[in-house]
């Protein structure tokens, strides 16, 4: 599933092609995503202008003249800008035809993504209402995590992936941040000190910013708005390296399952 860096890359990639463009037509070939697409979406969006593209957590927000599209890519979703004469393939479910001749195309083989429309403030939508802080803001700090975890028996990796605490961090970046912070993913969140949380937050911000600068992480099928892969995969220290050796101490990395997710760590560097 695309995490914060990948969604941020897509937002930046499409913005220059779609902002200030009028939506001439919406073609919905398949409305059965994770939730059915609103029946009147195509009619309602016609002739509206795209004003802003931004991100909240792992959601892409397309602000138009009279409302906002809230798009989640799910497991395999892609949002790309293509020329209007680009033929649609089997999994190209939605096209937004724009006044500049481009098409904003939503593709999703597994259809776990979603597209919602709201005329209210996006933060009031049920999908965004209870989200936690953005990790690249000043609100996300060591003190914030320390205060939120004093009664938490949950392991620290699962807490980092809890979108009600902090948004946008998934399996890839939770593994990587914990390695860089020297914290074992199985540790109960309430046993981690303020100084350790301060280091962890610093590493989360560092990893996310570096991933954005590298164009995100392509493990299987992530591509940006121009169809190019991300290169942060070359920087991964533990994620996807099951059975290999730690770059720092040459100890064999260990792999366990936490909340049904593969979790790789170094038994020496992470305590």
What can you tell me about this protein's structure?
There is one protein chain. With 271 residues, the protein is of the alpha+beta class. The protein has 2 domains: 121 residues, Alpha-Beta Barrel (N-terminal domain of MutM-like DNA repair proteins); 124 residues, Orthogonal Bundle (Helicase, Ruva Protein, domain 3). Helices cover 23% and strands 22% of the residues. The protein has 6 helices and 10 strands; from the N terminus they run αβαβββββββααααββ. The protein has a 4-stranded antiparallel sheet. The chain has a 4-stranded antiparallel sheet with strand order 2-3-4-8, with helices on one face. Strand 9 and strand 10 form a beta hairpin. Helix 1 packs parallel to helix 6, helix 3 packs across helix 6 and helix 5 packs across helix 6. The model has no long low-confidence stretch (mean pLDDT 92).
Write the layout of secondary structure elements.
Layout: H1 4-18, E1 23-28, H2 41-45, E2 50-56, E3 59-64, E4 67-72, E5 78-83, E6 92-98, E7 102-107, E8 114-118, H3 142-148, H4 156-160, H5 171-181, H6 194-213, E9 254-258, E10 261-265
Helix pairs in contact: 1-6, 3-6, 5-6
């Amino acid at each position: 599933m695309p995490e914060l860096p990948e969604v941020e890359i897509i937002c930046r990639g499409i913005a220059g092609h779609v902002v200030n463009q009028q939506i001439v037509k919406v073609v919905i070939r398949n409305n059965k995503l994770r939730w059915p697409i609103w029946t009147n979406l195509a009619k309602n969006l016609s002739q509206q202008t795209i004003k802003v593209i931004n991100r909240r957590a792992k959601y892409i927000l397309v602000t138009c003249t009279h409302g906002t599209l809230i798009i989640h890519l799910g497991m395999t979703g892609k949002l790309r800008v293509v020329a209007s004469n680009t033929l649609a393939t089997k999994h190209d479910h939605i096209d937004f035809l724009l006044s500049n001749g481009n098409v904003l195309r939503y593709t999703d083989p597994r259809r776990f993504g979603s597209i919602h429309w709201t005329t209210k403030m996006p933060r009031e939508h049920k999908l965004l209402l209870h989200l936690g802080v953005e990790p690249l803001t000043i609100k996300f700090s060591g003190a914030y995590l320390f205060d939120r975890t004093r009664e938490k028996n949950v392991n620290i990796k699962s807490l980092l992936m809890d979108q009600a605490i902090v948004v946008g961090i998934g399996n890839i970046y939770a593994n990587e941040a914990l390695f860089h912070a020297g914290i074992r993913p199985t540790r109960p969140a309430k046993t981690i000190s303020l100084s350790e949380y301060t280091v962890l937050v610093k590493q989360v911000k560092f990893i996310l910013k570096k991933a954005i600068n590298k164009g995100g992480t392509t493990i299987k099928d992530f591509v940006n708005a121009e169809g190019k892969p991300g290169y942060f995969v070359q920087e991964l220290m533990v994620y996807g390296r099951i059975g290999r050796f730690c770059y720092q101490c040459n100890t064999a990395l260990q792999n366990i399952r936490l909340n049904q997710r593969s979790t790789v760590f170094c038994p020496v560097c992470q305590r």
